[in-house]
């Protein structure tokens, strides 16, 4: 449990918001801010800088889910959403929007702690996967750049693939630069000399 988390509660229904707030306070969370509307949510999140966002939409419309998509892409925070009714399309849209926990008909104060922990854990797991995917994509792009530059060196200097790679690697070490940076420079130079 991390009771010093800053939590933003968004709920137009005062009774339901009070249930969320009471459950969070009983779980030890004291840094709570309550908003009564989703309009201006990105600005509110930037202002209050919460660690977690808890939203109760009762019956989310497609527009509300589209707003959540924009919010989650912009602010990258764990988001828990409570709804009374749902269908598979709404669940799918919420997950695509980046909602970490989508709770249907489960607004009970005693459930707030485990739901919040699940939301944060799921958000962190997805963030780690996203970072790993970005890293893998970056490495693949770097590999493609190096291979392209290697082809240029092979063609211009009449070297084998291994010799071209060794030359690029030596140059990178001598200049104290990354191999991919040397490759980019070679590609840029080759483009200029066409």
TrEMBL record:
SUPFAM superfamilies assigned to the protein according to its UniProt record, in alphabetical order: CheY-like (SSF52172)
Domain of life of the source: Bacteria
Residue numbers carrying 4-aspartylphosphate: 56
Residue stretches making up the ANTAR domain: 126-187
Keywords, alphabetical: Phosphoprotein
GO MF, one example: RNA binding
Domain Response regulatory as annotated: residue spans: 6-120
GO terms, biological process: phosphorelay signal transduction system
Presence of keyword Transmembrane helix: no
Protein's name in the database: Response regulator receiver and ANTAR domain protein
Source organism: Bosea lupini
Lineage: Bacteria, Pseudomonadati, Pseudomonadota, Alphaproteobacteria, Hyphomicrobiales
């Amino acid at each position: 449990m991390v009771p010093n988390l800053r939590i933003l509660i968004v709920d137009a229904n005062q009774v339901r918001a009070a249930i969320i707030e009471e459950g969070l306070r009983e779980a030890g969370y004291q840094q709570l801010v309550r908003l009564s509307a989703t309009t201006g949510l990105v600005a509110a999140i930037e202002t209050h800088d919460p660690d977690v966002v808890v939203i109760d939409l009762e019956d989310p419309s497609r527009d509300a889910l589209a707003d959540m998509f924009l919010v989650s892409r912009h602010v990258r925070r764990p988001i828990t959403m409570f709804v009374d009714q749902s269908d598979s399309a709404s669940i799918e849209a919420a997950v695509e929007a980046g909602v970490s926990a989508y709770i249907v008909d489960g607004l009970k104060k005693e459930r707030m702690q485990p739901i919040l922990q699940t939301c944060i854990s799921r958000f962190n797991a997805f963030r780690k996967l996203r970072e790993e995917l970005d890293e893998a994509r970056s490495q693949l792009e770097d590999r493609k750049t190096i291979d392209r530059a290697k082809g240029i060196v092979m063609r211009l200097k009449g070297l084998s693939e291994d010799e071209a790679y060794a030359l690029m690697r030596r140059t990178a070490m001598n200049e104290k630069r990354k191999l991919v940076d040397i490759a980019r420079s070679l590609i840029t130079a080759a483009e200029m000399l066409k």
